[in-house]
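User: Structure please.
Assistant: Input sequence and predicted structure:
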Amino acid sequence: MDLFRQTIPRYIRLRDAPSYLGMDKNRFGTLVRPFLIEIPIGSHGIAFDVIDLNTWADNYKRCNGRPGIRHKELLWDAKKAHCPNTLGQVSSGALNGTVGTSIKSGKAEDLTSALKRITAMKPKKSSIPN
């Protein structure tokens, strides 16, 4: 059977979904399945929408993927976490690019000065008498 001429169905059964994403069934069960809509097929069958699987894969790639290593270059994600969502959840905002979008660019100096201000504050007096 020629893989490139094969038609991909709209729904993929539970037994085939892990291999569609290139992972084992246990990893699929912990990383992917909790965040997908299950579609019942018959009395015992479960399927998943291919669009949901592809959306999950795109989100996972965006959060965990990184470019290949080039000579004399540092990895672009070596010092920062670029995706707050580590479980691979697909939210409605992820589809339109609004999740985690900062409206103000922060600098290390801003964080340092904020930490200095917080640590320099005197603790509040307790309302309970000694």
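Strands lie at 11-13, 39-41, 45-49.
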